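Example (one chain per record):
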Amino acid sequence: MAPARKSRYLWAMKTIEMMLRSHPRLDVQRAVDYAEALKALSTCSEICTSCADACPGEPEHLEQLRRCIRTTLDCADVCASTARILIRQTETPNELVHAQLHACTIACQVCADECDRHGEMHDHCRLCADTCRYCQERCNFLLGELSSAGVAEGGAEPANPNESPALSRQGGGFKGSQRARRERTKARQASGSVLYATPQPPVRSIA
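Predicted structure:
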């Protein structure tokens, strides 16, 4: 990532995080997690829109790209809607947030799978697929925070990053997620395993 571009990215991240930290109902760690997810959602929405716009510019392959155009436009809209819901922190309806995050992981996966089919021929599809998969990982991470313990049934086994944890009716919502974070820390110490590895944004250059 070029220095100027990286600087703008970090500035956007810090601005979102600072705004979230100023919210009276948000703790510091949650602000960091949400800032990463919100930036991933915003970027994914923009990249998907750009990919959908680039596809008609490939007239010789337009017929093969028809589904790609549809899935990228759908993913762009779902990511934008998810970001708008996540940024609201007052009287948060956890069931709605969970359902929206789950829908977003599906939209990202469908879009990434479709873009992968064209990635070897079209760089915009390859970049879109990478961006969608990273956004999917960030949404699944937040789904883990929303669940009662953030781990798969069976104890210390790590959750599959491609499967969305179910929403627990117990644990007190996001206050429960703070307790869950402490429980995961204890599980890490007991098992020596990492339950959630924070993924890094994809860095791939256009050939």
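Caption: The chain is about 65% helix and 0% strand.
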